[in-house]
Write a structure and sequence with these properties.
The complex is a heterodimer of chains A (488) and B (267).
Chain A: H1 7-10, H2 30-48, H3 57-65, H4 69-75, E1 80-85, H5 90-103, E2 108-109, H6 118-128, E3 139-143, H7 149-152, E4 157-163, H8 171-174, H9 177-189, E5 196-200, H10 204-207, E6 216-222, E7 248-254, E8 257-261, E9 274-283, E10 286-293, E11 296-302, H11 308-323, H12 330-334, E12 343-349, E13 352-358, H13 362-372, E14 380-384, H14 404-407, E15 412-416, H15 420-430, E16 437-439, H16 443-452, E17 459-464, H17 466-478
Parallel strand pairs in A: 1-3, 1-4, 2-3, 4-5, 5-6, 6-9, 13-17, 14-15, 14-17, 15-16
Antiparallel strand pairs in A: 7-8, 9-10, 10-11, 12-13
Chain B: E1 10-16, H1 27-38, E2 43-49, E3 62-65, H2 70-79, H3 81-92, E4 96-100, H4 102-107, E5 110-112, E6 119-120, E7 127-146, E8 149-165, E9 173-177, E10 187-188, E11 190-192, E12 195-198, H5 209-224, H6 236-251
Parallel strand pairs in B: 1-2, 1-3, 3-4, 4-12, 5-7
Antiparallel strand pairs in B: 5-6, 7-8, 7-9, 9-10, 11-12
Classes of the chains: A alpha/beta (488), B alpha/beta (267).
Chain lengths: 488, 267
């Protein structure tokens, strides 16, 4: 069993999930009160106007009134916080972590609406606070955008920070992936020594984060006997983080994640504290995996689809290991965690089935397409992409998605969103006959158009970016097919 | 087009450093060339050339040299001396080049970054690039004249290098929207004989089918030694992507980046 946490490390005391004793209730300044009122008011207004859950607006409004509102609410009161960052898997890992902690009797404040920029995290804290600025007892579990982390982390009281992976993701927002890695390294270095840093050892860009930092560091990854993927052109960080030589892989598990080593300088994947030793994607409703942990093996059945779910589960378990929290109820806790909104969510739609898959970069697209292929390639497809602040402006990465594999079997594709033009062009060059394509920019009309071709009992697969996923889901909510996305 | 013998309609394409220079979807340029050839019954053979390898460049019809991030660009620059002579010979022989971003910079004399050592280029193009204080990240468009026709070419620029052209090249295009080579002189990219270099990602070819077809045409004419007229294709989907890109370039000159948050107004 690849138990590698040193005895010294394991003898460390558990990391406290209590409020820091020196911290106190916030001094209620007029400005803080005004910020809370304005933020909560914006949330209510946003909901009443049917503009979604108000996931960004309250934070934006409140920070205009009091720029230090998040810092006052969270760091100022010493509220224990667990943050999850990285390119992929933030929302699912946060959900699994919240369930894991709750299952062991830890009070948790968390929601998985997925707004993870500065404004979104601030909205979350305002949502949990009362009008005096007091947060409920318990641990805050948040996901933080990898580029926003540097701004957000100092305003929280982090007890654990998990980095899932780093993929090329919206280059127009971040410039270059190396700049993002550097920013995360800075945030990791700024963690207090009594916090745990949890990293994905299979991702070369992430595996070496925080090595020089004082404090606990826990690694997770896959330890499977064979590869489950190959290096594709979507992979972008396959050079050695130390010497920039091309890395060699013994096994590739997902995009550029795997058991890697550098043939030039000898750097190798770090030993794994939590290792996935088997994964089986049963169908769209279940993934089974076995994890080796310092406290023994764990057999998990998670009601979600995809090999990446095993990474997310290993990350959540590694957080518990990092905190020194025993998790005897892990299997039962994680067995209850269905997909977050739009993560291959299965929706009953008046006798037809909709599988809603949120995809934002080549890796999440390819991973989602692979999970869908467990049922055979989709025949009826709705694909949507929109340029927005959170979805980015440059959609060049669509050309790195492996649409070619699915193109041949598709019977009908409805292309939607503000960037339907780029998406349609990509699909045409992937081999989808334009005669099988309908470009319907408007999301509601696109949903109607796509469902026209789906018979009773048939399936429509939707692949969409963040904003169109929320819009399409909201439309389905109005039709009574799903609940609200921020409650999913 | 005059009747050609079977197999005569064929293009050999060298794809330089496909694993290192794969950023910003530039691989879509190859997809565009290969598909538009296939739809017309023109065969293509694609030869990837990775770091540590080399190829007989003058023996190709078309050569793709794409963009990459700083780290990958440095790895490519270190490997480039082994390619330099062959690339210069290919350019002199009239092989059609499409170079994008880092490819443009490394076909020049040198790239002098803001920090770190100078990267030597191969000197196929008379131009030099210096790292600048500002990153140009936006939809962009330029006016390009090729074979007597003038069209607007659209794409997305993402670079901090500032390029100055020497007398040995002319601009690929005139800036309509965006920063172009350096944000000052209104030039975009560079051309010398059949070597075409641009800063435009997007990727640039799929949404500019006119440019794609020009490159194919020039390469075929050079191979066959006579005029070629390509069969027309239905480009409605491409034209739509082009027009949306152009509208964005003309309207959305601002930058949006999560690294500089909370700069957007009320919408």
């Amino acid at each position: 069993m690849p138990v590698t946490t040193s005895a010294k490390e394991r003898s460390l005391p558990a990391i406290s999930l209590r409020r820091r004793p020196q911290a106190s209730a916030p001094r209620l300044s007029l400005r803080l009160f005004a910020a809370l009122v304005a933020g909560k008011g914006a949330a209510t207004a946003s909901r009443l106007l049917g503009r979604g859950g108000g996931t960004s607006l309250p934070g934006m409004v409140a920070r205009r009134v009091e720029p230090r509102v998040l810092e006052t609410l969270v760091r100022g009161q010493g509220v224990p916080t667990i943050a999850i960052t990285g390119s992929n898997g933030k929302t699912t890992t946060a959900r699994l972590t919240a369930a894991l902690l709750r299952g062991e009797g830890v009070a948790v404040s968390h929601n998985s609406a997925g707004a993870n920029l500065v404004q979104g995290v601030t909205s979350l804290a305002i949502g949990f606070a009362d009008l005096r600025g007091r947060l409920p007892e318990g641990t805050l579990v948040v996901e933080v955008d990898e580029a926003a982390l540097r701004v957000v982390a100092p305003e929280l009281d982090l007890r654990a920070l998990l980095v899932t992976d780093l993929f090329r993701d919206q280059l127009d927002r971040y410039g270059e992936i190396y700049a993002v890695a550097g920013a995360i390294e800075k945030a990791a270095a700024g963690l207090p020594p009594d916090a745990s840093l949890v990293v994905n050892g299979d991702d070369p860009m992430v595996a070496g984060l925080g090595l020089d930092r004082e404090g606990r560091r826990v690694t997770f990854g896959f330890d499977l006997p064979g590869s489950t993927d190959r290096i594709s052109r979507a992979a972008d960080t396959i050079r050695c983080p130390r010497c920039r030589a091309d890395l060699a892989y013994r096994h590739v598990y997902l995009s550029h994640m795997g058991e890697w080593r550098c043939p030039s300088c000898g750097l190798v994947r770090p030993p794994l504290d939590v290792a996935v030793t088997s994964v089986e994607v049963v169908d769209l409703r279940e993934t089974r995996c076995t994890l080796q942990t310092p406290d023994g093996p764990l057999d998990l059945r998670i009601p979600q689809a995809g090999i990446h779910i095993a990474y997310d589960a290993a990350g959540a378990v590694a957080i518990a290991v990092g905190l020194g929290l025993p998790i005897p109820h892990a299997a039962a806790s994680l067995a209850t965690v269905g997909p977050a909104f739009g993560r291959l969510e299965t929706i009953a739609a008046d006798g037809r089935r909709i599988v809603l898959g949120f995809a934002k970069n080549p890796t999440s697209f390819n991973t989602t397409l692979r999970a869908l292929a467990t049922e055979g390639e989709p025949r009826q497809l709705l694909v949507a992409a929109s340029n927005t602040l959170v979805d980015g402006e440059d959609f060049a990465w669509l050309w790195d998605v492996d649409f070619e594999g699915a193109a041949g079997r598709v019977e009908r594709v409805t292309v939607s969103g503000l960037r339907a033009d780029e998406l349609a062009n990509r699909l045409k060059y992937a081999g989808v006959d334009p005669a099988r394509m309908a470009i319907v920019t408007d999301r509601r009309a696109a949903l109607d158009r796509a469902l026209l071709d789906v018979k009773q009992g048939g399936t429509l697969v939707i692949l969409a970016g963040y904003t169109p996923t929320i819009e399409l889901r909201e439309e389905m909510r109005k039709r009574g097919w799903v609940g609200r996305f921020w409650e999913a | 087009m005059t009747v050609t013998a079977p197999g005569e309609l064929r293009l050999r394409i060298a794809h330089l450093y496909p694993s290192l220079l794969n950023v910003a979807g530039d691989g879509g340029n190859l997809t565009a060339i290969v598909q538009r050839c296939r739809w017309r019954g023109i065969e293509t053979e694609v030869v990837p050339v990775e770091a540590g390898e080399t190829a007989d460049y003058p023996g190709f019809d078309l050569l793709l040299f794409h963009g990459g991030q700083d780290v990958e660009m440095a790895v490519v620059a270190a490997d480039l001396p082994r390619q330099a002579e062959g690339l210069r010979a290919a350019a002199d022989a009239g092989v059609v080049f499409l170079a994008v971003c880092a490819g443009l910079q490394l076909l020049g004399h040198r790239y002098i970054p803001s920090a770190g050592p100078t990267l030597e280029g191969v000197g196929v193009l008379d131009l030099e690039t210096r790292g600048g204080p500002q990153r140009f990240m936006q939809h962009a468009a330029c006016e390009v004249t090729l074979g007597g026709e003038t069209e607007i070419v659209v794409g997305f620029e993402n670079h901090s290098g500032q390029t100055e052209l020497g007398p040995g090249v002319r601009p690929f295009g005139r800036v309509v929207a965006g920063a172009g080579n350096n944000g000052r002189d209104g030039t975009e990219g560079a051309v010398r004989e059949n070597v075409y270099a641009t800063y435009l990602h997007g990727p640039v070819l799929p949404k500019n089918p006119w440019l794609t077809d020009k490159l194919i045409e020039i390469a075929l004419e050079r191979r066959l030694g006579r005029r070629v007229a390509l069969a027309p294709l239905d480009d409605a989907v491409e034209r739509n992507a082009h027009d949306v890109g152009l509208a964005k370039a003309l309207r959305n000159r601002g930058r949006r980046t999560a690294l500089e948050p909370a700069r957007f107004g009320w919408r």
